[in-house]
Amino acid sequence: MKNIEYAIKGLRAPFFKFLNKDKENFHCPICNYAGPFKDKNVRLHAKCPKCGELERARLQYLVLENIFKSIDCSSQSILHIAPENAFRKLFRRKFKTYVSGDLYRKDVDKNFDIQDIPFPDASFDMVFASHVLEYPDDDMKAISEFRRVLRPNGIAVLPIPLVHEKTRDRKDRDKVTRMMHEAGLDYFARFEAVFTKVEIHKSEMYPKEHQLFVYRGGGGEGYPLAVGDGWYSDVVPVCYV
Length: 241
What we know:
The chain is of the alpha/beta class.
């Protein structure tokens, strides 16, 4: 069903491009679409009309491309948490062994809690877990579990939404967002406590043609990484064993 939805989006893209030919053009690195992007609520130029991916996915894709330039993963294995469709396809092409996991979803290889990953030490060469560390009760346990299942020279790509200058850990789960941890700019110290090296990739480090910034307009008060006029940068931490 998902593949049919993506195919339909792809057919609609030329019509959207024609009807919005006066808008600014961008390039989607995920599906190679070139043309105007769709707005998403207050977020300007956010969504690719062909593949449907948003700013953060485009940035993550470019970061992964950068990683793949320096490693040969054709004989390696990856653990993909809460799998996104675009990255699922990419990882299945790139890696010899692909394993997906989630707490509840049915479309994964295994259901488990990231605070207790059911694989032996040194089982994978890469872990990709985007926007999941804000949810477990003990996020440090989850980070340590990601480190545990990685082999020597392994890599963990662990993006988390930054919503404050300083991280706020909640005593009770937020009833709306379900978050336990509202990450700030200091959150990356938690990765540094577990991994040998942590690299921070930001929107501004990659070509502007891909439109990797998030526009929040007047609704971004208190949000870190502002770059001016309602626009905000995004970040992707890459952690090395």
